Give the backbone structure.
Amino acid sequence: MVGEPVIEARDLRKWYPVRGRGFASLLTRRKPEFLKAIDGITLSIRPGEVLGLAGESGSGKSTTGMTLLKLHQPTGGEVRFQGLGLLVNETNRTRLAFRRQAQIVFQNPYEALNPRYTVAQSVGEPLSIHFPHDRDRRREMLLRAMDRAGLRPSEDYLDRYPHQLSGGQLQRVAIARAISVEPRFLVADEPVSMLDVSIRAGILNLLCYFASELHMAILYISHDLSTMRHVCTRIAVMYLGRIIEQGAADTVLDAPLHPYTQALVGAVPVMAGGRTRAPSNLIGGPADAIHLPGGCRFHPRCPRAMDVCRERDPALDLVASDHEVACHLYDSLSMSAPVRGKQ
Amino acid sequence: MRGFRVILDYPSGTAGAIVVVVFSLLAVFGPAIAPHGPFEVVYNTDHSVLRLSPPVANALFGTTNQGMDVFSQLLWGTRSALLVGLLSAVGSVVLGTAVGLASGYFGGWTDEVLMRLTDVAFGIPFLPFAMVVISLSKPSLGLVILLVVVFLWRIPARVIRAQVLSLRSRPFIWAARAAGASHARILARHIAPNVLPLSFLYAAIGVQTGVMLEAALSFLGFGDPNAMSWGAMLNAAFQAGAMRSAWWWVLPPGVALSLFVTAIFMITRAYEELLNPRLRAI
């Protein structure tokens, strides 16, 4: 892919204090505990690239999306947008400039729109925030966004309220709203998981179109690996707040290295007559993100755990071109010194 | 006015609305149609005072022991009762809504401070508190309104905070934030419109409570001595020892008070069913 990364995260952390705040926590002197929703993530997305973020519930996928958009303040690490750090020089103008360039589509289209707003008001809201004085331009961008999101003819939708539309239509409205300001970075947080299977492809094709034709950088968050091959150029797999494998979409899906990724890929239903894979042999459920196991955070569930896994946390190492994995099984393959995600 | 029409869908709501409208008209036009002033003495044709008289032609509801016209007092009293009710309701709901919005939306220390303040307000027993404050200063209608506001804001504050807490985490609020909306815009455009129906409910309850508390204070002799009110009429009748003998003096303010409070209750009942669909399914 060409071009400088639109968005980059370096060693990003988001920890939530578990004990209450306020007077009570000031008085009791207990060691504060943290839920480590994101625990050191490094990633970057270039224009036209769709990065799929996979992982089971509670692995921190959505928190990563929200933190990249600064909807959550990171506890540590750095987010850079078009080469500029986002934690520093936070003025109202830079905040608005960033908001114009980075947008999000949520999982539940029924909740993502204000029930009291018409479609025109919902899609037009970002425009009226960013172009308050330019009525003609707003109108033009509104209609263009509706057209790009497949809401045609737009007159049929402009004056409707959310309760008058179907789930697929609502998700297209939410997408039109997100792309109305023509952002360079889009987070799609499980955009199809609440939709009927028959209309998923249409929504996913929109994402492909935004990446290839409008050169957006897209973070596609999903637990559903089967949709990822269709949409993503690259895939990152998360486990308990950390990326454990990352690489080109086909590589990760066809030749997964990390035992966790292998189990995830093995869990995808395969059409009869197609390839068959060994069933998952993971042990138990994910550890709790407050009391992480020492060493590799995956070792209690790993079918191939070794002694070293209980002691040393593996770093995300490059093991082939554009294929990184955080697993001691591949320590010998590691190309020179760890490139990223140093621990 | 959509909400208002729904109230009329319920028979109790309609009845309540009619009573409240009649009282409001009396509050506005009553003093103009009252035959006498609230403290004006009514005389017989022979210039003697018409004292403690049952209803007669020139005193429709009879007179008090000082010869004042009960009908005129009732009309003037309606105005001060509704004035106290309306102003204290508006004041308490505006204050309570503002506190609830700020507390629920900003959270953190703002929430902590405002909610501990609300806890303190929940500890105030109205009558003893109001009697002490009024004893230490000059009794007036304005002071009564202020006291009722101080007493009432706590309930809408808590309820609206809870509502905002659940709204705040809805995806469309996140979407607004991602779109670059300021806190002021999110509060005004996305959160406030979704809590205003609750504010209106508490405004109606506030009118009712305000009228009752003003009557209670006046009955105890802590009302504004220059303003006639339903409570003040009952207080005068009580002090004159006429509670049992002069029914024409006690009945009008007592019935007016009960009728008005019941009417508001019926409206709030209908409104509550509108807000809470679970009550509707019977």
User: Anything to note?
Assistant: The CA atoms of residues 230 and 253 of chain B lie 5 Å apart. Residues 2-280 of chain B form a domain with the MetI-like fold fold (CATH 1.10.3720.10). The longest helix of chain B spans residues 70-106.
